[in-house]
Amino acid sequence: MEEELIFDKYKKRGAGYHWEQISKSMGGRNTFVVARYNIVLGQVEDCKDKTILDVGCGDGALSYLLSRQ
């Protein structure tokens, strides 16, 4: 019998937990997540005047960071 997998990460942690992890707040900041996003942002060329489709973007934190770049 197959075990059903339930994706409830956002239900457990709240919809904006990535936002807290990239915040400047010492209480919620996660330097591993910030470093991971910085690696991704470093791989993306100039985004100005371009459209980016972020499929499965979760709570949109990475999309926001891309839009600021």
Q: How many DSSP helices?
A: 4
Classify the helix fraction into a percent range.
40-55%
> Helices and strands: which structural class?
mainly alpha
Instruction: Report on the biggest sheet.
Output: none
Strand content bin: under 5%
Principal-axis shape equals globular
The averaged pLDDT comes out at: 82
The overall strand count is 0
Spans where pLDDT lies below 50 across 5 or more residues: none
N-to-C series of helices and strands: HHHH
What gyration radius follows from the Cα positions, in whole Å? 15 Å
The end-to-end span amounts to: 47 Å
Give a description of the structure:
The longest helix has 13 residues, at 31-43. The chain has four helices and no strands. It is mainly α and 69 residues long. The protein has helices at residues 9-13, 17-21, 31-43, 61-68. The protein is 45% helix and 0% strand. The chain starts with 8 loop residues before the first helix and ends with a helix. The model has no long low-confidence stretch (mean pLDDT 82).
